[in-house]
Amino acid sequence: MPVTKYVARWLARAEEDLQVAELLIKENSSANTICLHSHQAVEKYLKGFLAHHEKHIRKIHELDLLVIECAKIDPSFEVLHGDAISLNAFYTPARYPADMPEFTMKDAKTAYAAARRIENFVLPKF
Description:
This protein is mainly α.
């Protein structure tokens, strides 16, 4: 089925998030922001997949739950569960700094790598 403009916007925004993360990695700065954008990119890729299949897109940020929704359409999505869980750990602390840990560049690179793995898995599904 062809990709609609609506779905294309989800995918474009996801790629923008990964581009921002990549630029910050090259500058070796803003680990928290890299983690946040890595999570956001995956959220948008998964929601784009759901939109592509004309499914209701829940207003949630838990990537593991989105993976479960995607796996109802394509069971192969279950392989993403581990990366989804690991990226969830970066989301809230990166957004809300009070009493939260600061992420390192190692954490940021881990989050970015997980996001790229998920991107490489999801994009061929369109």
